[in-house]
Amino acid sequence: MKKSLLLIPLMIISCKKEPKITETQNRDSMAVSEQASPLQKADSAAVKMKDSIINNAPKTKEVLSKGVMRNEKDGQIIRIADAAQLPFKLGEEFTKDGQEFILKITNFNQQNIKAKISTDVKDFNIRFNQIKLPNGDYDGPFGREITYDVKGKGEVWLIVGKSNMASGSTKGSFTVSVE
Prior knowledge:
179 residues; mainly beta; 4-stranded antiparallel β-sheet; 1 helix; 7% helix
């Protein structure tokens, strides 16, 4: 009986539709657009029950413990977290060249956002490429740290990827800390 009660939220989560995100690269920045997509399921390996951690980077131990959706498709890793959980730290890993990490923070209502990328990988070519604001505007590129004044309330995206203006490895584990 208890197991069936735990499966109900997972079934509801796995049936949720998410927009497909595509990218178009233009020199040093990217444009991201939303498109309708077929039903996608949550990564059941990334979603753990009760007090366990959600972590896809094996060397990262400090992460958000619950309430984070994770989808991976076509080189994009998409995580969704509620701003009520701020501050938090997420662990992630790029295993292929050209991957991109998009952190969608829902219900954001603060005046500014601070975020930092940390890694132990030497010569890791990674940065905040763009931020998407609640009004739909994009800004960027940035470095490994960002402090940004956010006008309005709603969903904020932090888009992490490689820098086209730098060299170095694009594979490895990293953490994103958000306040």
